[in-house]
Write a structure and sequence with these properties.
- With about 900 residues, the chain is of the alpha/beta class.
- The chain has 34 helices and 27 strands.
- The strands form five sheets. It has a seven-stranded mixed β-sheet, with helices on both faces.
- Strand 5 and strand 6 form a beta hairpin.
- Helix 26 crosses helix 29 (about 795-805).
- The longest helix is centred in the last third of the chain and has 20 residues, at about 735-755.
């Protein structure tokens, strides 16, 4: 309507929004409160003047709207709204006060619920539905009131201290009506478990009716669903999902009975925008896809999913930029936002209003024994560092990237490639072989020398093709079969099944991935991470390292790795590409005009980026591709999609052609029974027609196989397989950080000995003079071992031995042996300076036994008999494993099989106790 005042323009927009939310709008004089559930009465008289809108639900006045022109500062009109709410309504009998207060322009809405404690206004995306206000009005307390007053004390029995702190901190924040809360907890500290406990309390005590658990990849959604299903609330016999419906959204329909919805942000956008997406669009985080400012997600109101659908939104891995271009998905809902992250950056803190309700760092988690520390082992090869050169006319394999079919041919020109080009344009099998061989040797001799089986190992590859090459080389170098090493990528066969086996079964021992389990996926038995790809994002790198940090008890680790001699006490990061030293960015910035790769364009279209610039860019790339590929390659793409590359480009171009859009809009209008001319078409009709054309043209790109085929075809289709240049390992050793960690560990151990020499019996044994000593027992050794294992020390025999072998290799023996409990005594004696060489306790006992028996035989009239010597050796072996021997020990193997105490007494008679006491003293001292 022309010549409207700013106020009238705003009123029209407000009317539209109210109607979208299901309200009937009536003028006061023509009011008919029986016409529907929710009636918005305009210019309603009150004893303090006419209110712009009074909201009626079931004939009862429940709220008021103060309408203002655009660009008004709405908070300055809150007193006016409150005045109308307190006023007497003409011709209306209020049974209760008006408690729902709105200030609105055509662009913005603020809302206050007077039932809240310390009620204050908040911005909302849209008006609530009348059904919602009807329910709220009948409830004596608002959700915020319940959060402030109704939360019972937290049952802490099954929770770690950091989880208790996080839940209490969150509930304190929610009680204070803080709209955004950030939980910073280290990877492995149990963020999801913490969140599920909080969800249970919010549903049962905090007034929540439905909670959204938001993720950014399908894999994280599956894992969250598994954890919800495995959760048993404190004091309850039933699992969470037996009393609360948990829905993981795999379609665009939200179950009306669901109390917890698990969803990717990509799918939630598609739900709000009524534009279905293929599941493959959920495989990759939006953070990994470059975007432009024109690809922002402009969310419009969807009556099927009103803004009050969720009371709380828990955002998993919120450090990633899901709140960058996708921020409006979060802004849409009137819900508390709760962020979970292990690696926050500055933008994360800013988005959550610097409201950090819990902060538990990786360093804290290591000190508490929740996670384990790590060492860095470096492998450098000549070709990794400097690349190599293939001369022209060299006969080599040329391999098709997509089919991996090879042809034997000469190179056309000299080909010089750098280390960064490895496994993209050129594959050097020798380089891969040397890295895998160096890893194998390092694990067997330096990293886990006492292990009989290969520790669970995860290798990060550059691409799927690179992963395949690594897998074949691992199997060859280790001499193992298919089950030993497998691929876990989105393109692999049954990746979820392989991942489950990798986590829970003996095989595979080694898994190779690209992105699928780079973040958020628990594989607790992991003890080695091998990086064969660089990572430039600091946050992403920390997440990838996090795959190895989870602690694991001895029993659980022993079930997977049977030669493990202790609980998981560390993991080792093997750096084969310089990833530890490469420059990392704090966070991904939003570029104004980035040169998007074909991969980003294709994935972006699949995820719903359908703006004109994106479509036009894809048209241009496809047109170029059509000219670059040969007929065989074009035919292969056509077989996948049923259309030629040229036809795909034409369909996309037609979808954004204004004439085609108008033509379809006119057809739609005619089909609906309307006669339209081009000039009378509304913007909504043209927008609908464009959406139809674009969705149809983009539909082929939902197919991940097509996207992969186009992406592979866009690059050089063939890789050169360089078998001419053989690689050489330049460095294979622990890095400086590992050396520093070892020194710190040894200092901590030595300090512990000095500080506890009088309190712990096993330590005081070596500080007392020989004539004051009481016998050393296995119980004393176990007491010492338990004290060392407790946080914050977390010192195990294996870890200490490894540290000494790194710092004092010339004085340390027995690195390859399986550690015994009594080896802790060898470490104590070496740290105290009693022994000049660190060697296994059993070796020390054996050497002292030889001296003792030689001396005794020389002093006796007759040497020990052969049978006596056999029994003395059994006694010696028992002392080596138990520190001492007593008469009761003869009732157990191996003594009992040989006749037990009676046989020993028959052999040594009255000398038995003397011999035992001497051996207890001299072999242990």
């Amino acid at each position: 309507m022309v010549n409207q005042t700013p106020e009238q323009v705003a009123r029209d927009a407000i009317d539209t929004k109210l109607e979208q939310a299901g309200w009937l709008i009536q003028n006061y004089r023509e009011a008919n409160l029986g016409q529907g559930l929710g009636i918005a009465v305009r210019e309603h008289p009150t004893d303090s003047g006419p209110a712009d809108y009074v909201l009626y639900v079931n004939r009862q006045p429940v709220g008021v709207i103060e309408a203002k022109k655009d660009q008004s500062i709405l908070t300055s009109h809150e007193a006016q709204t409150a005045r109308y709410a307190d006023s007497r309504l003409k011709w209306s009998k209020k049974e209760k006060p008006l408690v729902f207060l709105f200030e609105a322009t055509g662009q913005m809405i603020r809302f206050t619920d007077l039932r809240d404690p310390a009620a204050r206004s908040r911005e909302v995306f849209h008006f609530f539905k009348p059904e919602t206000l009807a329910v709220w009005y009948e409830e004596p307390e608002s959700t915020r009131y319940k959060l402030h007053n109704n939360m019972p004390p937290l049952a802490q029995d099954s929770l770690r201290d950091c989880q208790v702190t996080a839940i209490n901190g969150l509930e304190k924040s929610l009680a204070a009506n803080r709209p955004r809360s950030l939980i910073h907890m280290a990877t492995g500290a149990g963020k999801t478990f913490t969140a599920i406990n909080a969800v249970y309390r919010l549903l049962n005590h905090g007034g929540a009716k439905r909670i959204l658990f938001l993720v950014d990849t399908k894999n994280l959604g599956k894992q969250a669903q598994q954890e919800f299903h495995a959760f048993k609330p404190p004091g309850k016999e039933a699992f969470f999902h037996e009393n609360h419906i948990v829905q993981r959204l795999a379609s665009n329909t939200i179950d009306s009975a669901a109390e917890v919805c698990i969803c990717t942000i990509q799918r939630m956008y598609s739900i709000l925008s009524n534009s279905p997406i293929d599941e493959s669009a959920e495989d990759m985080s939006p953070y990994e896809i470059k975007q432009t400012g024109k690809q922002q997600k402009f969310v419009q109101y969807n009556p099927k999913v009103p803004i009050e659908t969720f009371d709380f939104i828990i955002i998993d891995e919120c450090h990633r930029s899901i709140y960058n271009l996708w921020k409006q998905v979060l802004d849409y809902f009137d819900a508390f936002l709760i962020g979970l992250t292990a690696t926050p950056d500055k933008r994360t803190y800013g988005f959550f209003n610097e409201n950090i309700v819990a902060e538990y760092s990786y360093e804290d988690s290591v000190l508490d024994g929740v996670n384990v520390g790590y060492d860095v082992y470096e492998i450098e090869t000549e070709i990794t560092q400097a690349g190599a050169k293939l001369k022209a006319k060299e006969w080599v394999d040329h391999r098709d990237k997509l089919t991996r079919k090879k042809r034997w041919a000469q190179t056309e020109d000299d080909t010089t490639y750098s280390g960064r080009e490895l496994d993209r344009s050129v594959v050097n099998k020798s380089q891969i072989r040397k890295v895998i061989q160096a890893m194998k040797e390092a694990v067997e001799t330096k990293i886990f020398p006492s292990r009989q089986e290969v520790p669970k190992t995860l290798i990060f590859a550059k691409t799927d093709s690179h992963a395949d090459d690594i897998i074949q080389m691992v199997r060859e170098v280790y001499g193992e079969g298919n089950a030993f090493c497998q691929k876990v990528t989105y393109n692999a066969k049954n990746p979820d099944e392989v991942l489950s086996d990798f986590r829970n079964e003996y095989n595979p021992r080694i898994a190779v991935t690209v992105d699928m389990i780079a973040t958020g996926t628990d594989v607790k038995p992991l003890e080695i991470l091998l990086f064969m790809r660089d990572v430039r994002s600091k946050g992403y790198y920390e997440q990838m390292k996090g795959r190895g940090v989870r602690s694991l008890s001895f029993e659980e680790l022993h079930r997977i790795s049977q030669s493990a001699s202790s609980a998981k006490d560390r993991f080792v990061l093997i750096d084969a590409v310089g990833v530890e030293k490469s420059c990392k960015t704090e966070s991904r910035t939003l570029e104004r005009n980035p040169n998007l790769s074909m991969k980003d364009l294709l994935q972006g279209v699949a995820m719903g980026h359908r703006d004109d610039d994106t479509i036009q860019s894809l048209v241009n790339r496809l047109t170029r591709l059509n000219k670059q590929l040969n007929k065989k390659e074009l035919d292969r793409l056509e077989q996948i999609t049923g259309n030629s590359v040229q036809a795909l480009a034409k369909q996309l171009l037609n979808a954004i052609d204004p004439d085609a859009i108008v033509e379809l809009a006119l057809k739609n209008a005619k089909a609906a029974g309307f006669t339209r001319g081009e000039d009378s078409l509304t913007e909504e009709e043209k927008s609908t027609a464009r959406e139809q054309l674009v969705n149809a043209a983009c539909a082929p790109f939902d197919n991940p196989k097509l996207r992969e085929s186009i992406e592979s075809a866009r690059r050089e289709r063939e890789q050169l397989i360089d078998h001419v240049n053989l690689d050489t390992v330049l460095v294979s050793d622990f890095g400086e950080q590992a050396h520093e960690n070892a020194e710190k560990l040894i200092r901590t151990f030595q300090q512990f000995i000095v500080e506890n020499k009088e309190e712990i019996a096993a330590l005081s044994f070596f500080y007392q003079q020989p004539y004051q000593r009481r016998g050393l027992t296995l119980d004393m050794v176990e007491e010492l071992y338990q004290q060392l294992q407790k946080p914050p020390l977390l010192l195990t025999t294996e870890k200490l031995w490894s540290a000494y072998s790194r710092i004092k290799p010339g004085q340390t023996k027995g690195q390859n042996q399986k550690r015994q409990l009594t080896d802790i005594m060898a470490l104590v004696k070496f740290a105290m300076g009693i022994d000049g060489e660190l060697k296994p306790f059993a070796e020390q006992v054996d050497a002292k036994f030889k001296q003792w028996i030689f001396r005794h035989n020389a002093q006796r009239k007759s040497a020990f008999s052969a049978e006596q010597t056999e029994w003395l050796r059994m006694i010696k072996d028992h002392i080596a494993s138990s520190c001492c021997i007593e008469r009761d020990d003869f009732d157990y193997n191996p003594f009992i099989d040989k006749g037990g105490l009676q046989k020993a007494w028959g052999l040594f008679e009255s000398e038995l106790d003397t011999v035992m006491n001497e051996m207890n003293q001299e072999l242990v001292a």
